[in-house]
Amino acid sequence: SSTNCARPEVFCVGLVTAFGSVEDHGLNQSAWEGVRQALEESLIHRAEFIESVDARDRTKNIRTLLESDYDLIVTVGISMDEDTRLAADEWPGAAFIGVDQPAGESRPNLASLTFPEDQGGFLAGALAALTTNTGKVAALCELEEIPSMWRYCEGFRSGVFYANPDMRARVLYKSEGGIGDLFNDPAWGEEQALFILEGSVDILFAAGGETARAALETAASRAVYVIGADEDMYYQVGNSDFVLSSAVKQAGLGVYELIKLAAENRLPVGET
Fold it and tell me: How buried is residue 191: exposed, middle or buried, by Cβ count under 10 Å (0-12/13-18/19+)?
């Protein structure tokens, strides 16, 4: 057929999420919208997605698309960085885009789309410092060793200090956890949010997938204002009246531009 991916003139793009739906009002949805835009503009001929339910399915989901002769695979989420790199090594004839994944060692068929989380964190911190009534604000992030998490929380700390040099943000990182719990540890997020709120914090910023979402949900349910990251938390938190704002990553444009280059056989290598 005209969309048979095995044909050399047909360019097919597949997207795999680390977890969650492509209708998450966040990173997954934004990335998928970039793929859809490329399809609607006829830059590519076919596009499909696979939503990962379990971390153990990610490699299989990528392989499913590659075995169907897809030319370009877009993977979304930092927890998929290793799966993406291994697939790029195993399938040198295919191209890959890792969304929100650090470049690491360069590969000729892998482009990494990253974001300035420090800027989003800074704005969140400044907003928190200018809005708080108690003078106590806090940030909760996944592992400090993950560059995007460090940028988010240290950006928040800097934003608070910039807006009010007399105020100090309380910043808490997750200290440990297995691969399966990475960005997906709601129990820890809830527990730490409750711990932080005992100190009269009235604004909580959190970054780190489902781990952060649980913390924000816990805080908002107790009438504490929250600031989210990556996704628009207005659609994710039950008590949305207490969602002050979100540092949202607009991945769609970046994904679209990289797909356009890949279709022209000009995919850039490394971090963009």
Answer: middle
- Cα–Cα distance between 72 and 176 in angstroms, integer? 34
| Sheet strand arrangement including 225-230 | 170-173, 137-141, 203-207, 225-230, 243-248
User: What distance, in Å, lies between the first and last C-alpha atoms of the chain?
Assistant: 35
Please tell me whether residue 70 adopts helix, strand or coil conformation.
Answer: coil
178 has pLDDT over 70: no
Q: What is the pLDDT of residue 269?
A: 83
- Report phi then psi at 227, rounded to 5: -125, 125
Q: How far is CA 2 from the centre of its chain?
A: 34
Please state the rounded mean pLDDT for residues 184-192: 94
Q: Please give the Cα distance from 84 to 88 (Å, whole number).
A: 6
Name the one residue in this structure whose structure tokens are 């499909």.
48
Residues 112/103, Cβ–Cβ less than 8 Å: yes
- Under 8 Å CB-to-CB from 264, ≥6 apart: which residues? none
Segment of 100-104, 173-177, 182-186, 202-206 carrying the highest mean pLDDT: 202-206
Is 3 or 189 the better-scoring residue by pLDDT? 189
- Which is nearest to 28 in space by CA: 248, 180, 185, 270? 248
HSE-up (13 A, CA, CB side) for residue 163: 21
pLDDT band at 179 (very low <50, low <70, confident <90, very high): low
Threshold 0.85, pTM exceeds: no
pLDDT at 212 exceeding the cut of 90: yes
Alpha-carbon separation of residue 212 from 93, 172, 215 (angstroms): 37, 12, 5
Q: Which helix (H) or strand (E) holds 262?
A: helix 251-263
DSSP 134: S
